Amino acid sequence: MHYVSTRGTAPVLKFADALLAGLARDGGLYTPQGVPRLTPAEIRALPGLRYAEVAARLAVPFVGDDFSSAELLATAEDAYAQFDHAAKAPLRQLDDNLFLLELFHGPTFAFKDFAMQWLARLIDRTLSQRGRRATILGATSGDTGAAALEAFGGSDRADVFILFPLGRVSEVQRKQMTTVDRPGAHAIAIEGAFDDCQAIVKTLFADLSFREELALSGVNSINWARILAQIVYYFTSAVALGAPGRKVSFAVPTGNFGDVLAGYFAGAMGLTVSRLVVATNENDILVRAFEGGHYELREVKQTQSPSMDIQVSSNFERLLFDVYARDAVAVRRLMAALGAERAFSLSRDALQQIRARFDAIRVDEEDCAREIARTYSETGTILDPHSAIGVRAARATLAQDPATPVIALATAHPAKFPDAVAAACGARPETPERIRRVLGSPERFETLPNDAAGVAAFIRARARRVK
Ligand SMILES: *Cc1c(COP(=O)(O)O)cnc(C)c1O
Q1: Cβ proximity of 139 and 194 under 8 Å
Q2: What is the pLDDT of residue 163?
């Protein structure tokens, strides 16, 4: 399998090179040249397999000869051994045809661990095969950074620099990043919003000589391997509810559009997906775009679900590439308009294709809190604010089509956001031992102004790659 950039002018790469590259040199996102399709019989063979076996099996055709299937299985087994639930992604029923997919049993208690734990092992293996080192650079709205610093903890081939928006992540999220005590781990607070952090990362990746010198590698959700790893739990959960004999819908708390895009690829691979529901908080650029066809940036609002406080949904570009018939020129035109005018309009045909698969629902702060309270009083389950947005959107979807089961993705453990949860339902989630340890450890981080050149100098001075 080869990977092409959504903007069409970066070199075509094999899996391992796309894995190390992260963002493409032309500013685009690497995306597979084709999508392998599973037959219904192959999908029917999945139930009963261990989670890591499903992961390896689904990844094989995307990976080509860069990793053997034995290597894929070994790295997946090792990655998911870090999770504290045997099923890795257990399903819990909340109501008639309403299911919660718990994706928070990894080391940093958010779904990001699913991709990051595996990706770190694949990157580490690639670097040691090539006798190379790399500098991982990423921006985080909270959970990606924690997952990355934790996942690369065992690698002495990669230094990790993570930018997070100062004062805009929860205390647990911040401490998960700032208490990682090892030489190659760097948490950097930026005086700005998440989109500022992401813009700095994009600027540094676009500086090709800096990129070369530092051997920069990206693990944000723009990295294709992240999407690939996230396809797995769409399959395991849907087959548990009867796919391919039965269609299921998914309601996905969405920020950067990475998680729900994995669902879109699962459908393209042959999984019987009915609706994909993009559930946003008050940062609703996608809802507005899907309703009116106009993708328009506005100011970021701070909400109880900070990991979704995002305006530029980076991964949306991969969907655009697909619905514009993989026309990189068209994508470049849209992205140029976004840069210049902070907005673009979707063609009628593109919008129609998007609406054929996706719904988009905005959940405001009040409804999010109401959903936490309702689910707690009806079932005893404590949802975190991100997951509550998914459940709320799932209920709206069920109201339209009560016969099709809806799986709401629970993307974070409530103990990551205890204050918001307690304010909504009066109950305080129990603090897992791992989080208690993090809360009691000393913090270590740098605060830098919102300025790419300053961040570049900081990285250059510390990356072991350049010594
Ligand atoms: C990252 C994150 C999201 C949003 O996922 P995207 O892939 O960016 O759409 C939702 N919930 C939580 C808890 C997250 O950490």
Answers
A1: yes
A2: 97
Q: Is the CB of 255 under 6 A from ligand 1?
A: yes
Domain extent for 99:
91-107+224-425
DSSP conformation letters of 264-312: HHHHHTT--EEEEEEEE-S--HHHHHHHHSEEE--PPPP-S-GGG--SS
The structure tokens 């100011």 sit at 299
Q: What is the pLDDT of residue 283?
A: 97
The first and second tokens of residue 364, run together, are 């405001």
Site to probe by mutation for ligand 1, drawn from 29, 194, 386, 416 as the one with most ligand atoms within 8 Å of Cβ, is: 386
pLDDT digits (tens, 9 = 90+) for 67-111: 999 999 999 999 999 999 999 999 999 999 999 999 999 999 999
Ligand 1 midpoint to CA 70 (Å): 30
239 located within any domain? yes
Q: Is residue 404 part of a domain?
A: yes
Alpha-carbon Rg of the chain, whole angstroms?
A: 20
pTM score, whole prediction: 0.95
SS3 state at 216:
strand
Q: Token pair for residue 81? A: 């051994």
Residue 76 tokens read as 């997946």
Token reading at 193? 């919003």
Q: What are phi and psi of 156, to 5 degrees?
A: -105, 15
Q: How far is the CA of 71 from the centre of ligand 1 (A)?
A: 28
- 3-class DSSP assignment, residue 35: coil
Q: Of these residues, 14, 88, 112, 301, which one is catalytic?
A: 112
Tens digits of residue pLDDT in 323-334: 999 999 999 999
Q: Does ligand 1 have an atom closer than 6 angstroms to the CB of 28? A: no
* pLDDT for residue 467: 46
CATH number at residue 351: 3.40.50.1100
Q: Has residue 202 got a pLDDT over 60?
A: yes
pLDDT one-digit tens code per residue, 100-158: 999 999 999 999 999 999 999 999 999 999 999 999 999 998 789 999 999 998 788 99
The tally of CA atoms less than 13 A away on the side-chain side of residue 82 is: 24
Percentage of the chain beyond pLDDT 70 is 99
Q: Residue 256 falls within a domain, yes or no?
A: yes
Q: Which atom of ligand 1 is nearest to the CA of 112?
A: 15
Share of the chain above pLDDT 90, in %: 89
Number of structural domains (the chain) is 1
Q: How confident is the model at residue 466 (pLDDT cuts 50, 70, 90)?
A: low
- Domain annotation covers residue 52: no
